[in-house]
Amino acid sequence: GAGVSQTPSNKVTEKGKYVELRCDPISGHTALYWYRQSLGQGPEFLIYFQGTGAADDSGLPNDRFFAVRPEGSVSTLKIQRTERGDSAVYLCATSRGSGSRETQYFGPGTRLLVL
Amino acid sequence: DQQVKQNSPSLSVQEGRISILNCDYTNSMFDYFLWYKKYPAEGPTFLISISSIKDKNEDGRFTVFLNKSAKHLSLHIVPSQPGDSAVYFCAASGHGSGNTGKLIFGQGTTLQVKP
């Protein structure tokens, strides 16, 4: 079956620009997570959705970052006024339900490079 | 403040031998631990997990050991195969991460299995 898909796979932008990263979850998965992986590091939690609502956005680094999931399926991570330090791989993961026992399935990520 | 640590950035073993990957954590509220495997240009894939009420979980060639008193877990792969060459991430979840299912990852260990 189809896994988690993320588009675009690569994004190059200039400092100060706005970007949107898209995540298409596995069908029927209600929980959706965004993580960011910098070079040489493990994925770092950004935000968690249960259905349409952001249940935990404690990992968002600042107010330039925002994410939505209006219909409880596809999610978009939005970054305003990008900075070079935002360069990383942005990973989306989904699971059937919430809670620590539910296996999270990751997409291939979007590689963002801010010049 | 790195709550999950993998102190060995890399490990090289001979095919057929045992690979042992280590992970330490600091938050005693974590109650669920996972290992993910990542190939280049792909998202992490779930490998094996263990609940804090157990000290061992086995799945084929993969065994995870948990030592709660030492806040240490390890992943054993035996026998190691060249296809096991990848980056391995240790992750923790549960009450220590807000019980939303968000994962706290270590930095990763790159395993190379030589034929």
Briefly summarize what is shown.
The complex is a heterodimer of chains A (115) and B (115). Chain A has 115 residues and is an all-beta fold.
Question: What this model shows, in words?
Answer:
- By secondary structure, chain A is mainly β.
- Chain A is built from no helices and eleven strands.
- Chain A has strands spanning 5-7, 10-13, 19-24, 31-37, 44-50, 53-56, 65-68, 75-79, 88-95, 105-106, 110-114.
- In chain A, strands 2, 4, 5, 6, 9, 10 and 11 form a seven-stranded mixed sheet that branches. A four-stranded antiparallel sheet of chain A has the order 1-3-8-7, with no helix packed on it.
- In chain A, a hairpin with a 6-residue loop joins strand 7 (65-68) and strand 8 (75-79).
- Chain A starts with a strand and ends with a strand.
- In chain B, strand 4 and strand 5 form a beta hairpin.
- In chain B, 36% of the residues are buried.
- Chain B contains no helices and eleven strands.
- In chain B, strands 2, 4, 5, 9, 10 and 11 form a six-stranded mixed sheet that branches. In chain B, strands 1-3-8-7-6 form a five-stranded antiparallel sheet, with no helix packed on it.
- Chain B has strands at 4-5, 10-14, 19-25, 30-38, 45-51, 56-59, 62-67, 72-77, 86-94, 104-105, 109-114.
- In chain B, 0% of the residues lie in helices and 55% in strands.
- Chain B is mainly beta and 115 residues long.
- Chain A binds chain B through residues 4, 31, 33, 35, 40-45, 48, 50, 55-56, 58-59, 91, 93, 95, 98-109, and chain B through 4, 6, 31-32, 36, 41-46, 49, 51, 89, 91, 93-94, 97-108.
Give a topology summary:
The complex is a heterodimer of chains A (115) and B (115).
Chain A: E1 5-7, E2 10-13, E3 19-24, E4 31-37, E5 44-50, E6 53-56, E7 65-68, E8 75-79, E9 88-95, E10 105-106, E11 110-114
Parallel strand pairs in A: 2-11
Antiparallel strand pairs in A: 1-3, 3-8, 4-5, 4-9, 5-6, 7-8, 9-10, 9-11
Chain B: E1 4-5, E2 10-14, E3 19-25, E4 30-38, E5 45-51, E6 56-59, E7 62-67, E8 72-77, E9 86-94, E10 104-105, E11 109-114
Parallel strand pairs in B: 2-11
Antiparallel strand pairs in B: 1-3, 3-8, 4-5, 4-9, 6-7, 7-8, 9-10, 9-11
